[in-house]
Design a protein that fits this description.
The complex is a heterodimer of chains A (253) and B (229).
Chain A (H helix, E strand, L loop, with lengths): L1 H10 L1 H23 L3 H35 L3 H5 L5 H37 L1 H20 L3 H33 L5 H31 L4 H29 L4
Chain B lengths: L2 E10 L2 E11 L4 E5 L6 H9 L6 E6 L2 E2 L2 H6 E4 L11 H11 L5 H10 L13 H13 L5 E5 L7 H14 L5 E6 L2 H5 L4 E6 L2 E7 H8 L3 H9 L1
Helix pairs in contact in B: 4-5
Chain lengths: 253, 229
């Protein structure tokens, strides 16, 4: 599976190179702005960095889905499906490498913002005061009603939700490929299926979890988050196994 | 039997590509899978390679249904170019080395040299003839039990064809089995042990090449013209 992952990363390497190049350019622009104390340059670079963060995370989320779709409709799919690997390994490698990419990208962007923040604090004394205020604010919040386990659970829910989006997309694409093979409107059907499956899942979780939230009346938010994780995890496993099964038994490339 | 196809059918919506093919492939022989474009040769080969799933019927490699085990023993070369666009000739070799335990790196290097290719060249920038040579080099660098080459001479000029066929036969060991699909019968006539004629998804003639020649009093090329005229 590691070899499969290696080639998943390789296939998507070009986009990462473009993102890193733009970040490097914006960072240089930011540092120049700080050194020259030019607010316009600093502001512009920060605004574009913010837009890039949003755009890049969005793009990374969907690049793995686009790659999977291409792997099923282009002739280079032979490279993948001729190898002696089970479809469970193939889909698993795609999901894991996508999760690693989004996690690493998230960490990288946090690190960049932290670095920029540190540069600003080091350069401008007034910003250090703002920083202190922000830290005090967070300390107050943490003391009131946010504990570390809740924060970790929220992060886990977000990550799992994102992985689930990928497996549902894989499932939708594979399902439409199973029945529609090379038909041109296959992509539209995959899209509709994706929203329909997510709608059904949303309804199920609403019915199963919302009552619990009311009953708990916010006394134990961790249980609610944990149940959410459990639901998303089950849904992810179902869509992952379904995708791999269809690839193994039904899909022709 | 190394490969057995029993009543194999593949349907695409309303079109039937393969219509009940029964075929036994013996080890150590060279087979020609003959027929014009659209006769079902490629679809049958793709089912044997595990790329296309049959609608009905079975296909097995040494008694085991086509799957992970068969993919590690069968070297299939598709007629279409299939390398990733970012790959160089060297990358292709590395990819095969990573996934196929029977891949012989040294043999790959030799074949690349013989095909007058360079390791640094990008697969997507190769001409169709050179791309075909790269596919052959990558496939034949595997020490597989069964080689299935789909239209290996497509895009290759008439002068290079003989050289390619000689290379393929040299590389394939005595114990290995070779199935070559083609509509270029002239080039295959001299080298094959068996000929399989496919028409409209079914086998219309199948047997040992020499026996077919004696029975019908015609060469394989003449038989091809008779069957598909």
């Amino acid at each position: 599976m590691f070899k499969l992952m290696k080639y998943e990363f390789r296939k998507q390497a070009f986009s990462k190179l473009v993102i890193v190049s733009i970040i490097a350019f914006l960072e240089v622009m930011f540092v120049i702005g700080v050194l020259l104390e030019n607010e316009n340059t600093m502001g512009t670079s920060m605004v574009f960095l913010g837009l890039l963060t949003f755009g890049a995370l969005f793009f990374l989320a969907f690049e793995s889905i686009i790659t999977y779709s291409n792997d099923l409709k282009q002739k280079c799919s032979y490279m993948l499906f001729l190898t002696p690997n089970s479809s469970y390994s193939i889909v698993g490698a795609k999901v894991v490498s996508a999760a690693i990419q989004i996690l690493l990208s998230g960490v990288a962007f946090v690190a960049i913002y932290a670095l920029n923040g540190a540069i600003l604090v080091a350069k401008f004394a007034s910003i250090a005061e703002v920083k202190e205020l922000i830290l005090e604010f967070f300390k107050a919040i943490i003391k009131i009603d946010v504990d570390v386990s809740s924060v970790l659970l929220v992060v886990a829910v977000i990550l799992l939700f994102w992985i689930n989006t990928i497996t549902v997309a894989f499932f939708s694409i594979t399902l439409s490929t199973t029945f529609l093979a090379d038909k041109k409107f296959k992509g539209v059907v995959s899209f509709i299926l994706f929203f329909f499956i997510n709608y059904v899942y949303g309804k199920i979780t609403d019915l199963a979890l919302n009552d619990r939230v009311n009953l708990m009346s916010n006394t134990d938010i961790n249980i609610y988050l944990f149940l959410n994780i459990l639901f998303v995890l089950c849904f992810t496993i179902i869509t992952y196994v379904g995708t791999a099964w269809m690839l193994e038994k039904k899909v022709s490339v | 039997m190394i490969l057995q196809s029993n009543n194999l059918v593949k349907k695409y919506m309303t079109k039937t590509a393969v219509n009940g093919i029964n075929l036994d492939i013996e080890a150590g022989k060279v087979y020609a899978l003959l027929g014009p474009n659209g006769s079902g040769k490629t679809t049958w080969m793709k089912m044997a390679a595990g790329l296309v799933k049959p609608t009905s019927g079975t296909i097995s490699y040494r008694g085991i249904p086509i799957g992970i085990e068969s993919k590690s023993k069968i070297a299939h070369m598709s007629t279409e170019p299939f390398f990733y666009s970012y790959m160089t000739v060297k990358d292709v070799g590395q990819y095969y080395k990573d996934f196929f335990s029977d891949f012989d790196e040294k043999r790959y290097e030799e074949l690349i040299e013989r095909m007058e290719l360079s390791m640094k060249e990008k697969a997507k920038s190769l001409s169709s003839g050179m791309a075909a040579k790269l596919k052959i080099a990558a496939t034949m660098a595997r020490k597989a039990e069964l080689y299935m080459l789909d239209e290996p001479l497509n895009g290759i000029d008439i002068i290079a064809r003989e050289k390619i066929i000689t290379t393929i036969l040299e590389v394939t060991g005595e114990e290995s089995t070779l199935i070559i699909s083609s509509h270029l019968v002239d080039e295959l006539e001299k080298i094959i042990d068996n000929a399989i004629f496919v028409k409209k998804g079914t086998i219309v003639m199948n047997g040992e090449a020499e026996e077919l020649r004696l029975t019908h009093g015609k060469s394989i090329v003449e038989l091809y013209k008779e069957v598909y005229a």
